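Box 3.1. Reading complex inputs
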Amino acid sequence: MREAAVASEPNPLQRIPGVAIVLALLIALFSAIAPGFLSVANLSNVLVQSTILTMLALPMTLIIMTEGLDLSMGAVLTLTSLCVAIVSLATHSMLLGLGAGLLVGAAFGFMNGWLVANVGIPPFVATLGTLGMAQGLSLIVSDGQSVVGIPHSVRDIYSATLLGVPVPIVMALVTYAAFHGLLYHTRFGTYIFALGGNREALRYAGLSPNRLLIAVYAIGGAMAGIAGLLMTARMNSGHPTAGLGLEFDAIAAVAVGGTSFERGNGWLLGTLLGVLSVGVLRNGLNLISMPSSVQVASVGVLVIVALFLDGLRSRA
Amino acid sequence: MTDISKEAMMPPRSFLSQDAIQLFHRLLAALLICAVLAMLSDSFLSLGNILNVLRQASLTFFIASGLTLVVLTAGLDLSVGANVALSACIAGTVIHKTGSPALGILTGLACGGIVGLLNGVMVTALRIPSFIATYGMLWVLNGLTYWYMAGETLHGFPAGFRQIGSGYLFGLPIPVYLLLVFLGIGTLFAQRTIWGQEIYAIGANPVAARLSGIPVARRLLLVYAVSGTMAGLASIIFLSRLNSAEADIGESLTLPAIAAVLIGGTSLFGGVGTVFGTFIGALILTLVLNGMNLLSVSANWQPLVTGIIVILAVWLDMKTRRRAQ
Amino acid sequence: MKQTMGYLALPLVMAAAFTTQARADGETIAVFTKNQTNPFFQTVRVGADNMAKTLNAKTLQYIPTKPDSIPEQLSQIEDVVVKKPSAIVFTPVDYKAMVPGVEKINEAKIPVVNITDRSAGGKFLSFVGADDYSLGLETARFLLKTLGGKGNIVIIEGVKGSLTNVDRVRGFNDALKENSGAKLLASQPGNYQRLQALQVMENLMQSNAQIDGVLAANDAMAVGAIEALDGANRKAQVIGINGTKEAIDAIKSGKLLASGDYNGFAQGCLGTMMAIRSLRNQPVIAEIVLKPTVITKDNYQPFDVPLEQRTCPTFEDASKLGAK
């Protein structure tokens, strides 16, 4: 989406502080006033709680870098989470469940990419449509009911630890490393930057921007599939509304992290910090028992303040 | 650059006639849905049901018409639903406290307008992308409404006030008159006034618009304030139609309003679209839900059908647009 | 209703004030409810606060910022387990999906009372709730009795898959089966939302010339349906469930026939009472299922009292109200 108010292009070094300052301030504040905030158990909580959003926000960063958007991610996650539950229930196999989730997620991602790249429907509209489709399919396959009784192997994904580190955190770290490698150290990553900033150059280089776009959206869908597995494991069940609305949290995290909506400026680490800021804020407010209505508003304030800080720096 | 700016400033006649073709296609789509529904359900074509559909479409249209202007400038307002909720709750309280519907209506409109203006300030002065600024605003408004209402419901308003939403005049529901009035005003404003043309120009090319002397920031403020005020109007209609309000009424309103704008052929990239198209978009969405109710379709299928219709409508739009070019 | 402080301006600065409050004397009871928007849960929270005050304990309210959000309530449980309140009074946003959360509370050895929706798993020291099925059944029976056991009926359902909705609608349907003269015209979803119920009702009136009775799965939808009927100048008997303030007002004015009393206030009171009693090593009642009460124009008076002025039932009342 292009904005009417054109901002000057920020350089990455100027951008770092925006979200980092916010996160540092939040951590300092809650360390001081929230008893138990700095305990290992609590910090581990914050990280584990942030993993599902991380898995959505990282591919969302890539999609936004291509001047795109994926509104269907939360609904697709819901659908894949149900697929994981249903298939693992029927086959008693976590891996088959994950496979089904990945397949359905990637299929939706592929459809998004195809609608955006080949049919030429604006990303916002295409993914708004697939949001409805995924939400409808979730209701249809589950008949609006929770899916329970899934094998323990699924649930263990969420509660198990690897060398003392909870598995979801390991998965998120591996995902981050993979995305970092992909974006900054492969040709594909360079092409993604070009997709947002300079599509013509890709064509001159003999590459098909359409196929690259489809790949980016398909990665997003597949990640929603993996996040779906985590969601199912977390609830030990599948539920037809579990992930609705998460796409906006992911988009907010990307924006708070300093990725620009205007032209191929992505910053993966910023996205991670953005996810953590939201996680720390919610956790800290829970620990100090802030009234819930204030919690609702403070998420909005966080988003606005972080972007305002970025705006200040980019103008300075 | 100068070519673009000229084109953006003064849309040539062919641009409008192409729009007319688009609208024609969309009307056809709406009629097609009507024909299918009429075949499937006897009661669909009754006068009562047609008025019913128009009245239901009016609420979506009020929100979506203001939103259309925002989208024409290549922006977006995600806070409209939350704005409706807050405005309705505040307007409702004022009517309860003062007993004056007029004061309540003014408060509702003002509350909506102020929220819209704040959105405009964030987009222009603070340079926050509209998508994010209004998303943040959505949470702030929800928080305010939850706190203000504290889980209570406002209900029971004077009979006169309730006429606005549920009354009839010469056999037509009053919201339908309001719909026609605002459809007329919106269309005239966008197509026939300089400000309207400037809004198209800003959406088509903000840099060119600025260079050609359009006060971009002021027009953007206006557009967001109008969008907020229309949300305020929707809150009044809601209040008087349902005779009550609570904190969560806005949640289910935002995405349908955006969908109505997009189905109506307004482009998210700005500069292209009409208020009339948005009306057709709202109509199509309402027809689909009305048809599903009349045919007793299970709720499970409703989001799927709506999703497919959004994609099909925009695809059709793009296809005809391309052919026209 | 409205607190006077403008917390919103400076949420983070205000934080310190709330922490000191939470550390004061007496037990701390963490109360979990589903959302901030449904008046029913407000009655639960007021009941819990009321009882805690009476027993000289404190409550901390945990409500998801997104209504009924499963991931958010799971996160809140994890956060609260770190904070270690004395006990927890728990309404699951989904009775199946929240089981892993309950097991986390169990692992942390925090005593927990289940209220409103019965959790599908986990260990609770007590359950306090209303029986949705018999509420639906009794309220629908009352409507059918008023109609003389016959007539055209429509059902407006709540959120698909929610426990309350499944049981209430099952109760409605069983009451219809008892009356062979009654005909079910349609059963359509209003998702517990006023506007959706109003529009569904408007649409159903188009395809059905005669509707005699409306069974709505909650009060907001019942009142929405009444507005639709009024708008079309048509008459039908309407019932809702929950016994909210607006339902009582509508019963008083003769617009609503009846509302099933879900009694959130008593649920909040008794849930908190059981939690505190167990902390003080007093006997608790393992299961209280409140008997269904149908509120009508003949018996609404005791319900027509502002929440703040109601008094919680005593332990002795609890057994009368529905201990098993």
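In summary: The interface with chain C takes residues 41-44, 46, 48-49, 52, 55-56, 59, 139-140, 142-144, 146-153, 155-156, 166, 238, 241-244, 246-249, 251-252, 289-290, 293-294, 296, 299-300 of chain B (CB under 8 Å).
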